Amino acid sequence: MIQQHKQSSNKQKESEELVNCLLVQFHQTLDQWVNELQYYDHEQLCLPPDSTSWSLGQVYLHLIEETDYYFQQCRNCLISNENASGKMSTEAGIWFQNNSYPHQKLQGPPDLPVPPQPDNKAQLLEGMQYIKIEAGTLAKEITTSAYNGKTKHPGHDYFSAVEWFQFAEMHLRHHFRQKGSIDEFLKDR
User: Fold this and answer.
1) Is the pTM of this model over 0.85?
2) I need a labelling partner for 105 at 20 to 30 A (CA). Which of 9, 10, 19, 170 fits?
3) C-alpha–C-alpha distance, residues 178 and 126, integer Å
4) Neighbours of 74 (CB within 10 A)
5) What is the C-alpha separation between 120 and 8, in angstroms, rounded?
6) Domain segments of the chain: what residues?
7) 140 to each of 2, 62, 78, 81, 89, how far by Cα in Å?
């Protein structure tokens, strides 16, 4: 009984350390997105490189919306043990092992809506600041929850709350490549 309690306590401590490391990385990534906003005016934020690409403002709105969705999935995992034995896809397992999406352009689901153009830069700044606050709140919820449920990702099977949290940060970093392409386009304007 004492050994079982000790193992449970060690597992809890490891989980807290992981979540705290993820939170630090999350904040660093968000800070980079927020700091970069100062270099663009509203017109630049709304200018797509071509008719099939998103503008930088649309990328920001996509990040805000998707991160909010991922956070909701985290919270759904924290209210029950449903699907606790569910596994993620092999592909997702590699992503998590590398703590990164693959270094290639990925195609989102066909039903993913095209984000609108932002109303103004302040809308994007407020959205990113909201995510940062929510990340801190959610990290505390993850480390104190008694539940270990999982929810199904549309393309990669089941993720736990910690995995959704990590996936959200990886998603933010993945879009830096897209931002780089848009920056190249804007540089010539």
Assistant:
1) yes
2) 19
3) 21
4) 26
5) 48
6) 55-187
7) 26, 25, 11, 18, 27
